[in-house]
Amino acid sequence: MEFFKKSKCFTEGTTVYARQYDSDKQGQSFEASLTINNIDKAKPTISAVVQDPTTWKNGNKRIKITASDTGTVTSAINGWMVKDSNTAPSATDSGWTSIEGSGPWYTGYSYSAKTWYVWVKDACGNVSASKSCVVDKIETTNPTI
Q1: Order of strands across the sheet with 77-83?
Q2: Which of 7, 52, 85, 91 has its CA at 20 to 30 Å from residue 26's CA atom?
Q3: What is the pLDDT of residues 49-66, one digit of tens each?
């Protein structure tokens, strides 16, 4: 029997059991089961990735990610990954940054001038298609007097 306390993604056909105890602590319990058949299989969608700020800056920039998890069944976006190659990550690869909420999300200021590729994943492990972001307008020349 599988018991859980938090929201979780299940594989199709998983049977979940719930047990309710009497509030007077007499040890009485009630058990029910439910077979899960409605599973989030849709990939989240990235609508935009842009450098932040978009103006000239002395030093690295961050990337602003706007994405959504839509479909009949959704489990919410819970991670993003940025890489300098367009090789898609799996949901279990290291390097995912955990996120919550509906976004947009901002990366740290660690991205140098080049093309970066961004993915998001949802709580069920569905990984989006990549979206690229060109980071430019980074000042690297010291001023002269």
Answers
A1: 97-98, 77-83, 114-122, 131-135
A2: 7
A3: 999 999 999 888 999 999
